[in-house]
Amino acid sequence: MMLKTNSKLNFARLTDVSSNEILSHMSDPRVAEHMPLLTFEWDEQAVVDFVAAKEACWERDGLGHWAFLLGDCYVGWGGFQKEGDEWDFGLVLRPDKFGLGPRIARTALSFARTDERIPFVTFLLPPSRERLRGLERLGARFVKLVEHEGHEFLKYRLETV
Hints:
Blueprint: E1 3-4, E2 9-13, H1 19-27, H2 29-32, H3 44-61, E3 65-70, E4 73-83, E5 86-93, H4 101-113, E6 120-125, H5 133-137, E7 141-148, E8 151-159
Parallel strand pairs: 5-6
Antiparallel strand pairs: 1-2, 2-3, 3-4, 4-5, 6-8, 7-8
């Protein structure tokens, strides 16, 4: 599923991106700084497993994570993943493209507002994330600290209806 926007920003499937692009992105130590669940070294097999897991979400839920492209350039990945009864939104950008976060998030959240399956979106952020004003400007509100896979996260919620 390709989601075209009114700019050069496009949302494609992760299968449309070279595994070398994903490997390079996820091997950058700056990416891991705010990803406490990233506890392994990325290699070709990790990319294959990652893409397969994200594609399985599309098969199971009809929605999942996209590859974000600016023109033809891969800038990161993210999207919606069903966690129990909630749709969690994640966004992982290449360090040189961190500035695109608000634009990509606004585009993805606009999509969520048109999808009747998504009455609200949650965000799980590590406590190391200090800049949260952008998320709050989008309308997300802090819910509570939660534990996920042995790590604490700040949980935010954004109503989409």
